[in-house]
Amino acid sequence: MGVALGFQAPGGMARLACVVASIAAAQASLQPKHRSAPPPPRPEALTDDDIPVLDIARLMRGEYDETDVRALGRACASPGFFHVVNHGVPAAVIANFEAAMRDFFARQTPEQKRRVKRTATNSRGYADDEFTKRTRDVKEMYDYGHRPRRDLPPDAPENVVLDGHNQGSKRVIQRRFNLPDGLPGFAGAVEAYYDACARVCDGLLRGVAASLDLDPGAFDGLFGGGHTSYLRMNYYPPHAGARFAAADANLDDERLAAGAEDDQATPLEALGGPRLGVNRHFDAGCLTLLYQDPSCSALQVGDMLQVLSNGAYRAPEHRVLASAPGAERFSAPFFYNPAYDAEVRPLAGNAPRYGPFSYGYWRRRRFEGDFADEGKPEIQISDYLLE
């Protein structure tokens, strides 16, 4: 399988590769000064042999062996995407989650899905109209996020955060468990997998800090108010068009390298068919964890880690191809994000390359661009580059 940056999501759950109430007053000093930064050069395509595979067993135990730490640092620097094994997530937790995700998309009727559809003020729940770089994705999705008080209903005031709240049926018996209609066990399976992903990312981020010659707890303050991560369940339906062929991905690479398509101005529908399930983009959090199979998951550097590392570690640009005719695909990225009130700024290196900003402000602006085409480019970390 050839993987290009952007990455193509391979077919099948066995190979899954890879917010929102407004902030009342974001400090003016933490808001971006937009500038027209030149686009980064297009990276060359990668093969499986180019993608590092890291054994993270010792890191998960809080053991920072120099060999492991340096290997993690090299992978974060280039290509910013790597596989991890011995992550400690039980196979049963993964299997139960996968079954729950498939059941949601297969067994819920359109009406049931609409009951938990996200809104402009609540990023959690179901959507079939996500935007990426001002183009509409070709997928269905369900977002589940951090719930500070699991002993209370999902929409209790204590559980309504900047991203909104987890949506489920309004029936009293189901409110506590965030359970979509007719799916017994859904919430338990999703929450168990969500917690497992958070543990893996927490352990890895401490290893990342060590790889930057920082104390392993250097990033802990960013999560002091509790992380604001979310788990996204994606369903890419079979495509009925005739544009898809095995070689089409290579043609995509040639077109993209030649700048033949403007990802901020050309709708997917105008490209002769929804070739891309998700347009080219950078993940906005610290780390993205993507399940592949019970023994191996993929990790990807996000924009926040690029800033925290002062550019030493790079968030890779990637995209997802739409499903081929007759095929359907599922994916489940977990986006590990800091607290809403965290100030994101370089913690490594000497002269800072990025100005500080509020993560909550960033998250609000990014979701606005995901929810609808605002007629302007999405917020990017390049907006905070210092002269």
UniProtKB/TrEMBL annotation:
Residues 29-50 are annotated as: Disordered. InterPro entries: DIOX_N, IPNS-like_FE2OG_OXY, IPNS-like_sf, Iron_ascorbate_oxido_reductase, Oxoglu/Fe-dep_dioxygenase_dom. Keywords: Iron, Metal-binding, Oxidoreductase. Residues 226-338 form the Fe2OG dioxygenase domain. It comes from the Eukaryota. Belongs to the iron/ascorbate-dependent oxidoreductase family. This is 2OG-Fe(II) oxygenase. It comes from Aureococcus anophagefferens (Harmful bloom alga).
